[in-house]
User: Fold these one by one.
Assistant:
Number 1:
Amino acid sequence: MIEMKFLFITDTHFRSNSPRSRRDDFQMSMVSKMNEIGDIISKEKIDYVLHGGDLFDRPDIPFKTASLFSKILLSYKVPIYIISGNHDSYGQNPVTIDRSILGLLASLNIVNLIDYNTVLLKEENLTVQLYGTPYRYDLDRNPLNYSFERVKDADFCIQMAHGFILRKPFLQGIDYTLVEDLKDSNADILFSGHYHSGFEKVKINKTLFYNPGSLARMSNSKTEQNRNPKVVLVEVLKLNNTVKYTIQDIYLKSAKPGEEVISRSIVDQNKMRMENLIYFKQAIHENLDLSKYNIFSILNDISPKKGFDASLISDARTRILEAAEEIGEHNV
């Protein structure tokens, strides 16, 4: 029997300071998690680590922070394959990765970047194909953007995608892709990141779709407060030309309970702001026919005219999503 073991993680968002939503030392919290992952790698004899994007919280993270986490990644002593997320690049454009900190780590062979390309991993007569779909601003406007060609001789295929892939419809006016839209995928497993809350495993045709959620709890929603960060262990086995796989969630013991690390006062403030926004929206709808207009289309229309920076617009959209999730509003 031949086997390969993979450990998938996503959305670590390494940064030098703590988000407003956190009451603890966020950087030290992530150091503890990454060190625990190192222990898992050793205990489970992992062959490859897979990262679903947003390694860093911004493309120009301070060198001191980059150095801290680079040393931890190097301590794993196994190859790390990663795709770029929207926070890893400038203007949410993977073409800019070469001048980002993630690009620097790739050039130093600390991580292996697989944006829009295939890597073949071989162990005797077992061949596993990895394919990476990085984030870009128009990724979820067409399901075909996730398409790729499966290598003929690949026994098994894992795709990583940093896109807004969901199991059910979400907010009106924002691009997303349903797993049903990807039912003809060439992957055996499609791991996605980007959507921090994640979603449960679902198999459609031959493809297992899974987003285990972000390793970092960045927002202050109830969902994040109740969510336990985890990593995913995948074991691919080949015996007598038959290929099988197992998949297992491993919850991180170093991740403290949400109520200890997420600030409730910020949650309540955001909830009140979002409720006021909803009331305002309802008042507009009562007086105007805006069935085809929503807060995101307003944001998209205004930003080019005002020349707002892309990162500012991205941050605004993120904050709206987090607040909407907190009060259960799914038609903003």
Number 2:
Amino acid sequence: VEREYENAGIKPGQVDTGAVIITGETSRKENARTVLNTLSDFAGEFVVTTAGPHLESVLAAKGAGAMEISLKEKLPVLHIDIGGGTSNLCLIEKGNILRTGCLNVGGRLLKRDKAGVVTYVSPVLEGFTSIKVGDSPTKEELLQLSGLLCDVLCACAGRKKKTILLESFSTKEAGAPWKPPENEVLVSFSGGVAECIEREVEENAYGDLGPLLGKAIGGSSLCRGPYRISGKAIRSTVIGAGCHATMLSGSTVFTQN
């Protein structure tokens, strides 16, 4: 962060306000709170928080333009923001948010080094894969795991009847398991994995499952019906926070344009 300030040619004290938001898999790390506090002290008058799954789902949907899509299309829109450790869900109809949710599905649930050796396996995969740290899994094993995660997303859109999978992969933070929409929806995608749905990306380009998961989604029922991929897929949550989530509190407010 300090290096980026230097690259920009500004000092932290010159920045009036901003936000540091830790989300998804990162928020579960044991040092997440320490990182938040350190960045808060370093950056100045910043809002620092860990975004809950429901807030993040709304921010991602707004930042990706899913709200506008729902106003133009006849079908309800299910926005899926697929990040490193979680996928945030937002069901929208005619610009109104019907419900939000979150699944333990993401590209960095499993990480590998450049040689293909596994360096991390998320606890949420326990019981769903035999791959462990130190293994060098075959492409078939990785495709099988990616396909499983893709099945969870297909189920969340009502494209597959996999109730048990939805219950198993729904996050505790989101509360009740996600309930699939009863009618046909247009699926909207954002997040890092969304960048890999239509692009050819080398399978270990990022040292995770992202490219294989993206390819699995592209060949699944999620992309056989109407769907959209956000033009700024990987930055949707940030755009949502910056452009669509201003909250003012106090007895008086003054603004001059």
Number 3:
Amino acid sequence: MKKIISIVISIGLFLISQKIVYAKDYVYSMNKYKEESFTKIIESYNEKNKKDGIIVGGYFLKELIEKDNKEYKDYQAIIGKYNNQGKMIWKYTYGKTKEDYLNEILYSYNDNNEIDGYIFTLDTTRDIEEQDSTDTTFIKLDLDGNFVWEKNSSSNERINKIITITKEDNTIDYYLAIGTVKIDDKEKGVITKYDKEMNVIWQKTSSEENTSYQDITSIKENNRITSFAIIEVKEEAKPKLMKLDLEGNTVKIIRDSIEEYDSYLLEEANNGFLLYGITSEVKLSKGEKSYYLINFNQEGEETWESIGEIPINSEEKINLLPIQKNNMIDKYLLEYINKADSNLEVIELDQEGIFEKKVKKINTDYYNIENFLGNKETLFFIGQIKCPKDDTCDYNSNSLFLISDEDKVIEVEDSDSRNVLLVSSIIFIGIIGIVLIKRKKAI
């Protein structure tokens, strides 16, 4: 009997150790400011240029400003580093004006093309007494989160997206930004080429007024960037999908209209590029919508299309994450909100957009998921912790950093919670052991 008890306890302790490591999602939050929210996420690097954690960025509400009997919200930007265990290493906040919203986080590079810090871009409003400015601000931090420099984009330019352009050996070549620029009070789509220090190399605008460039991705052939795909949106006109050469000139209208889709985004593919988003052209119940992926080759010709069979919430955005292996895209992870239960799901798709398996399901009662990142077998989710409508919460909405490796979410605030689980489990197994001993004595 003693041997049996010993075996039971040993197995129990082994299972506990496995559960602590593998069966939990760990939730972290700065929990410091009102209306904190993380919206952007990339991997972090150390001085040896090795990946060592996660960089997150977003915004928070500093205070409410009163001016001329009007109340303004003073939003500020935040960027921070977590290690892979959820410990915050450093944070940096920025805010000089009424509102500063973070758009993108990029890597910065030294003369040896090694990552030496991070550049984040901000939409900024100059002053509560002035009209909103459309300028974009660039902030550079070193690898330890220290301020290096601050620059403004060209006058009246608002950047919607900025991408890093690399050479065939994966070293940086330049940055390419798209968005809008105001010229004589008329908005035009603009594409700007920046060097590594965010100095303008050239800038080109669309030929028509009241246009905006909404999204861009590189078109590759055997890991070499040959051109770009871009989405142009014009007031009271159909959105276009176009192909640009390396100098930003339009060389082809791939589709003169993509209005049949409810949303449209661009992503890289191994040879060509992807157009993806939400569509109602699905073989589901009437009125239902799901995701779609369309692959185009380097010439802008459609090669395949994949449409989901899962009804999704079309009011929520979706995120597509390419997973690389040996410098080539091996698969995609797609994140969306399932309409049936309003929970977030992540599924795995192969290189041709075919469903492989469900990777993750998260109850969204307490979370607003904004973005995610895959790292080996672990997923990192960011967003905002929220209070459900039917609950009375004693906290303001706070930033969310969720480390996940299983299919069920269990809220854990810090490492002490693991100790509670361990102690509770040991007590439970101890009770089992005592019961077995008493039964033996009774016999």
